Amino acid sequence: MNRIYMIGFMGCGKSAVGRRLSFLLKLPFYDMDKEIVRQTGKTIPEIFEEHGEEYFRELETKFLQNFKNDHCIISTGGGVTMRKANQKIMRNTGLVLFLDAPFREIWRRIHRDPNRPIVRQSTREEIEELHKARYRDYKQTAHITIRTEFRTLRQITQYAAFQVKRLKGE
Ligand SMILES: Nc1ncnc2c1ncn2[C@@H]1O[C@H](COP(=O)(O)OP(=O)(O)OP(=O)(O)O)[C@@H](O)[C@H]1O
Ligand SMILES: O=C(O)C1=C[C@@H](O)[C@@H](O)[C@H](O)C1
Ligand SMILES: [Mg+2]
What ipTM was reported for this prediction? Predict the structure, then answer.
C-alpha cells in the first residue's frame, strides 16, 4: 500500500504538516485521533477516563488493521509507536515520516491543552521523560525524519514532499 503516515510526539506538527502535504500531493488526509473519536462517539479524554489507556491503544491498533484506504496521508496519535504491531503495519503499508521537534517547543504548544489526558495528569518533567522514552521508536519506525526547528510549516511540507517523491522514485 501507498500511504504516508505522520508520526511524532504531541504537538510536533503532524496535523498541520499532514494537511499541507495533502494539498501539495493531492491526497486525502485522515487524522487517527479524529477517526477514533468519530467511530466511538467519545472524546479522547472520555475514552481514557471511561476505559483507560490500554483500551485506547487497542482502538489505535484496530484502526490501523481495519483502515481500507490507500493513497492517503494519515496523521497518527503521539503514542502509536508504543506497540510493535503498529510500527510493523505502518512500515509495511506506507512511508513513515517523523517530525522531530525540540521538547521545549512541544511543551509550549501542548501544556495548556485540556484535550490531552496524558499531559493533564503529568508534570513537565514526566512529559519530557515520555518524549525521551518514545524518541527511539519514532526514529526506528520512520523512513524519513525531519527536524522541524527553525523551519516554517511551508519549508517542512516542501521538504517532506521532496523526500516522499525521492523514496518513491518519482
Ligand atoms: N514548524 C512549525 N512552525 C510554526 N508552528 C508550528 C510548526 N509546527 C506546528 N506548528 C503549530 O503547532 C501547533 C501544533 O501542531 P499540530 O496540531 O499540527 O501538531 P500534532 O502533531 O498534530 O499534534 P497532536 O495531534 O498531538 O494534537 C499548531 O498550532 C501548529 O500550527
Ligand atoms: O501521545 C499520546 O499518548 C497521545 C497523543 C494524542 O495524539 C492522542 O492520541 C492521545 O491523547 C494520546
Ligand atoms: Mg494532530
Answer: 0.97
Domain assignment present for 17: yes
Q: Is 78 annotated as a binding residue?
A: yes
Count of domains for the chain: 1
| Cβ 152 under 6 angstroms from ligand 1 | yes
Residue 22 has pLDDT above 90, yes or no: yes
Q: Determine the Cα–Cα distance for residues 83 and 38; give it in Å rounded to an integer.
A: 22
Q: Is the CB of 12 under 6 A from ligand 1?
A: yes
* pLDDT band for position 170 (cuts 50, 70, 90): confident
Nearest atom in ligand 1 to 155's CA: 1
Given a cut of 90, whether residue 1 has pLDDT beyond it is no
Evaluate whether residue 170 is within a structural domain: no
State mean pLDDT over 70-86.
Answer: 98
Query: At 97, which CATH number?
Result: 3.40.50.300
> SS3 for 18?
helix
Check whether 16 is labelled as a binding-site residue: yes
Ligand 1 in reach of 21 Cβ (< 6 A): no
169 is a domain residue? no
- pTM of the predicted model as reported, rounded to 2 decimal places: 0.97
Residue nearest to ligand 2 atom 4, measured at CA:
78
Return the CA Rg of the chain: 15
In angstroms, the CA 89 to CA 147 distance is 24
Mean pLDDT score of the chain, rounded to an integer? 96
Local structure of 131: helix, strand or coil: helix
Full domain range(s) for residue 119: 3-164
